[in-house]
């Protein structure tokens, strides 16, 4: 597989305040590198796709960025805070949708949101206000009192989004937000992300190329744990005329 950085051009969207930074991030499991010296910066206002085939290291890198996993080398910054030494401050600005969504099947969406709000030290008044807001944003009215384990995949994903949005963070890191959803649910989640992207900086992982064109103004591409492209969707498509061809070119042996 190609292991060279084939395009390091940085997207120029006019914004320049870095909100999500990977600085030489590596994660080793024994001698296997799930992420290897990954560096990029997502600027304020950007909606960035984190692209790569299965097993490329997207979830690992996202966990390193959010501070859920300790890097073997390098460090991450969110909203300017080092996630190794200032994680709580960084977490105030960060909402994270993990790849498997909410893992508390016996809780209801309301009890889950209350639990996370309490963990974040929200006052009851603030919590009531924010729960009402995320129920609306994520369309959770119909299921707010039902056990999460009994909800459809689409609703579980929305509960995960509600949890990520609860403290109204400026930065969102979303691990495959549309995975396993039906076409209607995918359309709804994409619409929600587009709307959120008007006010927030977002990094979302996907291997669906239409998602890039539908939602993103920036692409970071990794393969076998290494950064292989960093630029705009237009730059990604340019060399091989379309995104499908380019995805293949960046991931096949070469
Ligand atoms: N705890 C672990 N121990 C050993 N290997 C791991 C561990 N976690 C992840 N890996 C390996 O690291 C590589 C990257 O995994 P990761 O889940 O980050 O990929 P991904 O790009 O998110 O893939 P997908 O699109 O399938 O979710 C994979 O080969 C995976 O098997």
Commentary on this structure:
The strands form two sheets. The protein has a six-stranded mixed sheet, sandwiched between helices. A four-stranded antiparallel sheet has the order 2-1-4-5. The protein is built from nine helices and ten strands. β7, α6 and β8 form a beta-alpha-beta unit. By secondary structure, it is α/β, with parallel strands linked by helices. α4 packs across α5 (153-165). It has helices at residues 58-66, 87-92, 109-119, 124-137, 153-165, 183-196, 209-215, 233-238, 243-251; strands spanning 18-29, 32-43, 47-51, 73-78, 81-82, 94-97, 171-174, 201-206, 218-223, 226-231. The relative contact order is 0.21. It is globular. The protein folds into two domains: 1-93 and 169-177 and 204-254, Rossmann fold, CATH 3.40.50.300; 95-168, no CATH class. Bound molecules: adenosine-5'-triphosphate. Adenosine-5'-triphosphate binds next to α1.
Number of β-strand runs: 10
Question: What is the ordering of alpha helices and beta strands?
Answer: EEEHEEHEHHHEHEHEEHH
- Mean pLDDT reading: 88
CATH architecture assignment name of the largest domain = 3-Layer(aba) Sandwich
Overall number of structural domains: 2
The first-to-last residue Cα distance is 5 Å
The stretches of 5 or more residues where confidence is low (pLDDT under 50) are 1-15
Strand content: 15-25%
Look at the structure and give the CATH class of the largest domain: Alpha Beta
- SS summary, helix count: 9
Bound small molecules, by name, code or SMILES, are: adenosine-5'-triphosphate
Largest sheet: 6 strands, mixed
Shape: globular
- Which structural class best describes the helix and strand composition? alpha/beta
How large, in whole angstroms, is the Cα Rg?
A: 18 Å
In CATH terms, the superfamily of the largest domain is: P-loop containing nucleotide triphosphate hydrolases
Topology-level CATH name of the largest domain: Rossmann fold
Spatial strand arrangement across the major sheet: 6-7-8-3-9-10
EC number: 3.6.3.-
Pfam families: ABC_tran (PF00005)
Keywords: ATP-binding, Hydrolase, Nodulation, Nucleotide-binding, Transport
Family: Belongs to the ABC transporter superfamily.
């Amino acid at each position: 597989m190609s292991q060279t950085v084939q395009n390091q051009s940085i997207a120029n969207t006019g914004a320049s305040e870095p909100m999500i930074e990977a600085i030489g991030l590596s994660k080793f499991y024994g001698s296997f590198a799930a992420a290897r010296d990954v560096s990029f910066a997502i600027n304020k206002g950007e909606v960035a796709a984190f692209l790569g085939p299965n097993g490329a290291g997207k979830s690992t890198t996202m966990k390193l960025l959010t501070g859920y996993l300790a890097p073997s080398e390098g460090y991450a910054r969110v909203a300017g805070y080092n996630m190794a030494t200032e994680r709580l401050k960084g977490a105030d600005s960060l909402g994270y949708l993990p790849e498997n969504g909410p893992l508390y099947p016996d809780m209801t969406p309301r009890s889950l949101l209350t639990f996370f709000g309490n963990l974040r030290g929200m006052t009851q008044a603030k919590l009531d206000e924010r729960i009402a807001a995320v129920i609306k944003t994520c369309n959770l009215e119909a299921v707010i009192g039902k056990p999460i384990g009994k909800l459809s995949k689409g609703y579980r994903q929305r509960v995960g989004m509600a949890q990520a949005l609860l403290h109204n963070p400026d930065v969102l890191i979303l691990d495959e937000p549309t995975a396993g959803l039906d076409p209607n649910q995918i359309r709804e989640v994409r619409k929600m992300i587009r709307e959120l992207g008007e006010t927030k900086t977002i990094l979302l992982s996907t291997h669906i190329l239409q998602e890039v064109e539908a939602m993103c103004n920036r692409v970071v591409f990794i393969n076998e744990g290494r950064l292989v492209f960093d630029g705009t969707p237009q730059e990604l498509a340019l060399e091989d005329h379309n995104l499908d061809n380019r995805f293949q070119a960046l991931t096949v042996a070469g």
